[in-house]
Amino acid sequence: MQKPQKTVQGCPFCIKNGKVTILNETEDAYLVVAINSDGIPMQGRYLIIPKQHIESILDLPVNWQNSVAELLRLIPEVQEGAHFNLSYNQGSVAGQRVPHVHGWVIIRHIDEAEGSRGIGLASLINKAAKAH
Questions:
Q1: What local confidence, expressed as pLDDT, does residue 6 receive?
Q2: Is there a domain that residue 45 lies in?
Q3: What is the pLDDT of residues 83-113, one digit of tens each?
Q4: What is the torsional sign of CA 57, 64, 30, 128?
């Protein structure tokens, strides 16, 4: 296990580097709106990120889920009863592009395209992989 660090220079998810805008925060984590590669906010997509620079899910504190639950309750769509997926990628082979743990919150809508409504994240990923 790696010891968490306060900030890693150049990490886009370390708050002191000034690359994220915080929507809400707890003692251990903060909530941000996800942005695409062009820097444009992605509607209904959020990230829950530990305040300390932690690269592996295995190094998260044991009470991490308390912070996650608290921040989930602060998302406007969740407050309105929206359904959502919560997902983590661990390691580059699994799709983790930034080596700072971050959980994706993906708001789901009843009016989603017919092929994706009502299926879980694993099925969405498999469907996308087959399309390419």
A1: 76
A2: yes
A3: 899 999 999 888 888 999 999 999 987 766 5
A4: positive
Helix (H, G, I), strand (E, B) or coil at 132: coil
- Total of domains in the chain: 1
The type of residue at 79 is Q
Kindly report the backbone phi and psi dihedral angles of residue 92, in degrees, each rounded to the nearest multiple of 5, phi listed first: -65, -35
Alpha-carbon distance 39 to 13, whole Å? 14
Are 41 and 33 in contact, with CB atoms under 8 Å apart?
yes
Q: Band of the pLDDT at 125, cuts 50, 70, 90?
A: low
| Run of H or E including 55 | none
Helical residues (DSSP H) of 80-132, grouped into ranges: 121-131
Which CATH number do you get for residue 87? 3.30.428.10
* Segments forming the whole domain that contains residue 97: 15-131
Instruction: Give the integer Cα–Cα distance in Å for 81 and 122.
Output: 22
